């Protein structure tokens, strides 16, 4: 059932047991699991069926620290959420992403990769994926890894019919949960704003914010402030440990034989470090995206190399006479270490149209992030030399220790952390089942629960965790 307003939903006298906020990949996945188990659930979606300027305006905010995207551009507020601009890149967090790293404080999850693997088949069906293939080591330091480009499933389009026909799921559009009310043990209600007006209070047995990796923190911060700590009793880490994936062009490569690497349909190959290499270099996880350049780029790159690296240029010129295939660009996306100071805060001066404070995002990259891209590319270059597969040239800004470029990607639009998962309430907001510490009926879905970010795009892991949470709630409620 899909309703255009809270008023229409109330007129239908549908009584849900679970209230989900947000209709992105996490919210829809959890609702479908509950609906299939015969549990009545409502999804409150703040936006409508389509993008509107009025709806996006609620997402305006400010960023303090490093350059970042406008907050009302990096996410979407309508049915399907950020799946509506998802590029479709899929990979699950590596097993070692879930384990602590001695050189990086506050890493490690209370669950392991094996806890989400039982849901991978289901997630493959949801995201229209083929089976993932194992990583293929190239050296002791670097492995070829698979990053699958799915058809970029738009959750609103793919599941609209199922949601509309369901007798157990109600989707209520244009309905904003602006505040949760709690007594320190349970959420007792939700304040609703629908179609431009206060619509009163709604109550259910269970509540699951799935509003995104920024908005989950905002909702809980505001609710906790209004309830004097009654929604998140252990709030030390609320909004904290926020993470992104920095993404920049880190250099170029000249390859002796492009056929040495398996490439995808866009002639791209992907590489990541081994856990041993990460430990030895004291760096975080990273992913190198190797993109073939047109043939004329080879000669141009060799000419550039002759000025700064004559030995490499000589090797490349020799290889060129042996039918050198191509040059390549090297883009790097990498894991940001958890940092308490990177956080989502409530603005002290700006509010949205309902009076809820806007977001102030505090985000900076640290020395370990800089070290990760620099040492990661060096590892890749050393592997290319040792295997006589090619030569790597680092970008000038990296070699010279200059600031990050401001005319490149900046980051992946991947919003993680803020309500992170931890067994320690001082270091996280939810436990291993995504339940808020100290609360009987409040759970959180989406990438805001990520304890660490790994190096890969988060959507596949988001949906795995959502399927797991839906399964957990189904067994708990039934």
Characterize the quaternary organization of these chains.
single chain
Q: Could you tell me the mean pLDDT?
A: 92
Rg on CA atoms, Å: 23 Å
Strand content: 15-25%
How far do the termini sit from each other?
A: 22 Å
The total of beta strands comes to 21
What is the helical fraction, as a range of percent? Answer: 25-40%
Can you summarize the main beta sheet?
8 strands, antiparallel
Summed up, the helix count is 13
What is the global morphology? globular
- Would you tell me the structural class of the helices and strands? alpha+beta
Report low-confidence residues grouped into runs of 5 or more. Answer: 320-325
Describe this structure in words.
- With 478 residues, this protein is of the alpha+beta class.
- The protein has 13 helices and 21 strands.
- The radius of gyration is 23 Å and the shape is globular.
Please describe the structure with a list of short key phrases separated by commas or semicolons.
8-stranded antiparallel β-sheet; 5-stranded parallel β-sheet; 478 residues; alpha+beta; 28% helix
């Amino acid at each position: 059932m899909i309703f255009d307003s809270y008023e229409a939903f109330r007129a239908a006298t549908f009584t849900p047991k679970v209230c989900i906020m947000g209709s992105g990949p996490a919210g829809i996945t959890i609702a479908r699991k509950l609906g299939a188990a015969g549990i009545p659930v409502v999804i409150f979606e703040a936006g409508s069926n389509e993008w509107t300027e009025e709806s996006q305006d609620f997402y305006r905010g400010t960023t303090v620290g490093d350059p970042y995207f406008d907050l009302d551009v990096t996410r979407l507020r309508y049915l399907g959420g950020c799946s509506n601009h998802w590029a479709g890149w899929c990979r699950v967090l590596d097993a070692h992403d879930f384990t602590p790293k001695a050189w990086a404080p506050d890493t490690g999850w209370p669950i392991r990769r094996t806890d989400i693997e039982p849901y991978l088949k289901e997630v493959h069906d949801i995201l229209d994926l083929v089976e993932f293939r194992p990583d293929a080591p190239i050296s002791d330091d670097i492995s070829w890894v698979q990053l699958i480009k799915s058809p970029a499933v738009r959750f609103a389009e793919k599941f609209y019919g199922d949601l509309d026909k369901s007798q157990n799921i109600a989707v209520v559009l244009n309905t904003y949960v602006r505040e949760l009310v709690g007594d320190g043990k349970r959420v007792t209600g939700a304040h609703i704003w629908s179609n431009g007006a206060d619509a009163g209070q709604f109550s259910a047995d269970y509540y699951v914010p799935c509003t995104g990796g920024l908005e989950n923190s905002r909702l809980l911060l505001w609710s906790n402030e209004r309830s004097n700590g009654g929604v998140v009793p252990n709030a030390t880490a609320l909004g904290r440990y926020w993470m992104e994936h920095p993404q920049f062009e880190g250099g170029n490569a000249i390859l002796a034989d492009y056929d040495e690497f398996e490439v995808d349909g866009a002639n791209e190959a992907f590489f990541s470090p081994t856990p041993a290499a990460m430990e030895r270099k004291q760096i975080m996880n990273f992913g190198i995206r190797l993109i073939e350049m047109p043939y004329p780029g080879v000669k141009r790159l060799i000419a550039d190399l002759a000025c700064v690296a004559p030995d490499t240029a000589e090797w490349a010129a020799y290889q060129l006479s042996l039918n050198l295939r191509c040059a390549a660009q090297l883009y790097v996306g990498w894991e940001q270490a958890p940092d308490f100071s990177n956080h989502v805060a409530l603005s002290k001066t700006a509010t949205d149209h309902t009076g809820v404070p806007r977001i102030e995002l505090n985000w900076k990259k640290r020395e370990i992030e800089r070290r990760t891209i620099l040492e990661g590319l060096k590892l890749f270059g050393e592997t290319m030399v040792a295997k006589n597969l090619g030569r790597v040239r680092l970008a000038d800004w990296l070699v010279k220790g200059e600031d990050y470029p401001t005319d490149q990607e900046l980051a992946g639009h991947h919003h993680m952390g803020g309500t992170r998962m931890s067994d320690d309430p001082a270091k996280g907001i939810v436990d291993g089942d995504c339940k808020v510490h100290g609360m009987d009926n409040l759970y959180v879905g989406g990438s805001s629960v990520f304890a660490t970010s790994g190096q890969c795009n988060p959507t596949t892991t988001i949906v795995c965790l959502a399927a797991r949470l839906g399964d957990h709630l189904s067994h708990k409620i039934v």
